[in-house]
Amino acid sequence: MLELKGIQYRVDEADNQIDILRGIDLTIKPHRFVVITGPNGGGKTTLAKTIMGLATPTGGQILWNGTDITTLNIAERAKLGISYGFQQPPRFKGMKVRDILEIAAGNRNLSRNVCCQYLTQVGLCAADYVDREMDASLSGGEIKRIEIATILARSSGLMIFDEPEAGIDLWSFAKLTETFQTIHDQKQSTILVISHQERIINLADEIIVISGGRVARHGTKEEMMPYILGDTVMDCHRNSVACGCFRPAK
Amino acid sequence: MTKIDTRLLREVAELEGTPKGAFNIRKNGQLDSRASTANIEIVSKEDKPGIDIHVKPGTKQESIHIPVIITQSGWMELVYNDFFIGPDCDIVIVAGCGIHNAGDELTKHDGVHTFYVGENSKVQYVERHYGEGEGTGERIMNPQTVVHLAKGASIQLETTQLRGVDSTRRYTKVIVGEEAEAVITEKLLTHDRQVAESEMDILLEGAGATGRVISRSVAQDSSEQIFYPRVVGEQRCFGHVQCDAIIMDKAKVKAIPAITANHTDAQLVHEAAIGRIAGDQILKLMTLGLTEAEAEEEILNGFLR
């Protein structure tokens, strides 16, 4: 179970302070599929980063399965079973796709077959990619799919994905939603996805809307869908609440 | 052979015991052991230190190992090795030098290698430099490699120096003939107060010649590196220079690539990049459970692979 208690994140600017997160309280039960959505700049990515340890909250407490992880570093949290898929993953000159999958799996002798399975799950033709370098020769969509494959390889208790759909083509996206559904069906991981895509939102057990650094709404998919669709300007981005036309709860 | 000798041979030539095929092992300036084969003859030079290696036309799938090891502190040498490779060959040459300096005296190996590669021959040349030893004496290696590629010939020249060499000044010159190809891969890691300089001249003299230089280096601590890769296109040809360096701590790296076209159909490209390890690379690997130090090591290992 993931518990966030009064999470705050404040940045000091030249003359003033900006509150990115203004006291987030959330409890996410085990093996739930939770989608975090809301307008750009609302604090979604910062919130996800505080859970992984990529950002240090200026206030509040984070508990994972009852353990206070607020002061643990990234690697320590990773070892406790938390993983994070970056919105814009880095490239590595010289390092191969196989290397990153092996590091992710914590096994430097991962069989080619197992590596290929992870790649297939994200819609990549495994034989073409397993020995490719993780450098600029990979397109944005390819590097993004490999990023998601690294999370699958970790088989962690809490998987956080920051906009996994960004930069992925329609065919791979269909494969990706199928993969999320499969992981969810296995009931072994809690999945936390930042997304604006209706097809991903449709997979969710719970939906959380973050806006202005606060939880604007939190409920089951059934409770939240009418609200999300109704409060989105329909002639702007039909499947998106990220365009800035979204109106938070009054 | 002592344990130190065995380790040095493993580091520079990946040898466990006597190599297969032709070989020449030189230790502290003396011939340790040598073997020629039916197709490859190794003979000592009469006028100066070094060896001549003659490879018969059409020799394929054979290897030559010519490692040099130095364990005597204060030993300094200048060695000339010449390779005469006939046409239509396909061979692998493994060279390299390992110095174990247990004393306080400067120890140095300067090697001058000259290759004459015959028409349509294919050569893979692997050279590793390695230094170790608890002494305070400097370990210095200054290799010079000159390659003449005849029509349709090719060479893959892979040089590696990871740690342990206090000072190196490397010079590589390849004269690329008609439809010939040179691919030079250089890997370098310096640390402490080490100094490394690598100068290259790739002369694309024949029509259809190709030259590629891929240099990857890591400069740590207060070490210094300088690169001067130069490519000259005299005919219709293709040349590409790619220099990538990771800079750390208080190190200094200078890369000065130069491309010169003396023909309208010479297509030459150079790229050079120097930068620190990107923060997001470290963070990504930490989210996979590595500590910061482990992440850094993985990034460097991959970069220098």
Give the uncertain stretches of chain A in residue-range form: 233-250
Radius of gyration of chain A: 18 Å
Mean pLDDT metric of chain A: 88
Structural class of chain B: mainly beta
Overall domain count of chain A: 1
Major sheet summary line of chain A:
6 strands, mixed
Fraction of residues in H or I helices of chain A: 25-40%
Number of strands of chain B: 21
Blueprint of the fold:
The complex is a heterodimer of chains A (250) and B (305).
Chain A: E1 2-12, E2 17-28, E3 33-37, H1 44-52, E4 59-64, E5 67-68, H2 74-79, E6 82-85, H3 97-105, H4 112-121, H5 126-129, H6 140-154, E7 158-162, H7 170-186, E8 190-194, H8 198-201, E9 206-211, E10 214-220, H9 221-230
Parallel strand pairs in A: 3-8, 3-9, 6-7, 7-8
Antiparallel strand pairs in A: 1-2, 1-4, 4-5, 9-10
Helix pairs in contact in A: 3-6, 4-6
Chain B: H1 3-13, E1 22-27, E2 30-35, E3 40-44, E4 50-55, E5 60-70, E6 76-85, E7 90-100, E8 107-117, E9 122-132, E10 139-141, E11 144-149, E12 154-162, E13 167-176, E14 181-190, E15 195-204, E16 209-219, E17 224-233, E18 237-247, E19 252-255, E20 258-261, E21 266-275, H2 279-287, H3 292-303
Parallel strand pairs in B: 1-5, 4-6, 5-7, 6-8, 7-9, 8-10, 8-11, 9-12, 10-13, 11-13, 12-14, 13-15, 14-16, 15-17, 16-18, 17-19, 17-20, 18-21
Antiparallel strand pairs in B: 1-2, 3-4
Structure description:
The complex is a heterodimer of chains A (250) and B (305). Chain A has 250 residues and is an alpha/beta fold. Chain A has one domain (2-230): Rossmann fold (3-Layer(aba) Sandwich), CATH 3.40.50.300. Chain A is built from nine helices and ten strands. Chain A has helices at residues 44-52, 74-79, 97-105, 112-121, 126-129, 140-154, 170-186, 198-201, 221-230, and strands spanning 2-12, 17-28, 33-37, 59-64, 67-68, 82-85, 158-162, 190-194, 206-211, 214-220. Chain A has a six-stranded mixed beta sheet with strand order 6-7-8-3-9-10, sandwiched between helices. A four-stranded antiparallel beta sheet of chain A has the order 2-1-4-5, covered by helices on one side. In chain A, strand 9 and strand 10 form a beta hairpin. In chain A, helix 3 runs parallel beside helix 6 (140-154). Chain A starts with a strand and ends in a 20-residue tail after the last helix. Chain B has 305 residues and is mostly beta strands. Chain B has one domain (3-278). Chain B is built from three helices and 21 strands. Chain B has helices spanning 3-13, 279-287, 292-303, and strands at residues 22-27, 30-35, 40-44, 50-55, 60-70, 76-85, 90-100, 107-117, 122-132, 139-141, 144-149, 154-162, 167-176, 181-190, 195-204, 209-219, 224-233, 237-247, 252-255, 258-261, 266-275. In chain B, strands 3, 4, 6, 8, 10, 11, 13, 15, 17, 19 and 20 form an eleven-stranded mixed beta sheet that branches. Chain B has a ten-stranded mixed beta sheet with strand order 2-1-5-7-9-12-14-16-18-21, with helices on one face. Chain B is globular and about 55 Å long. The mean pLDDT of chain B is 95. Classes of the chains: A alpha/beta (250), B mainly beta (305). The A-B interface holds A 52, 54, 73-75, 78-79, 83-84, 86, 89-90, 92-96, 99-100, 103-104, 106, 134, 150, 154 and B 216, 244, 278, 280-281, 283-292, 298-299, 302-305.
